[in-house]
Amino acid sequence: MRPVERHITLLFRLLMAWTFLYSASHQVLVPNFSVVGFLNSTKTFHAVFVLFTTPTLAPIASFLVEWGHTLIGLSLLVGFCTRLSSFCGILLLMMYWMAHMDFPYIENHNNFIVDYHVLYSVVLASLILYRAGHVFGLDGWAARLPVVRASALLRWAVQAD
């Protein structure tokens, strides 16, 4: 990879880390954060998302959202398990994309099918493609550890070849 590609890859990784960590700051620091209000207002896939507003599932979904954002952001920040966090981030963003959908619009009439959730997902996919954790990140170091070499899941997560 050429130096300019390495720097752009690092920039994208850090920008996505900031995006997830900033989002997490609005959830982790808020007392009694809950996804219920947001999920109750979904339109296109309401029957799917309303299941996560039940008293049993709402606390679990809220915990997964706030700490998912935090862990994805931290992982991208330090470049450790970047493939895994990028994959999880894509899944999370696509769920948000569906939750914001009032087909064919996303969130409002300015976004026709495509919005920032899709763009962020493409950036995360590029982080996987360009092995972003190996660019000034910990994935390159972790890939050489015996414990990582012994585990197929860890080898996949850090893109050890």
What does this structure look like?
With 161 residues, this protein is mainly alpha-helical. The chain has one domain. It is built from 9 helices and 3 strands; from the N terminus they run αααααβββαααα. The protein has helices spanning 3-28, 36-40, 46-49, 58-78, 82-100, 116-129, 139-142, 146-149, 152-157; strands at residues 101-102, 105-106, 108-112. A 3-stranded antiparallel sheet has the order 1-2-3. A hairpin with a 2-residue loop joins β1 (101-102) and β2 (105-106). α1 runs antiparallel to α4, α4 packs across α5 (82-100) and α5 packs antiparallel against α6. The longest helix has 26 residues, at 3-28. The two termini are 16 Å apart. The relative contact order is 0.15. The model has no long low-confidence stretch (mean pLDDT 94).
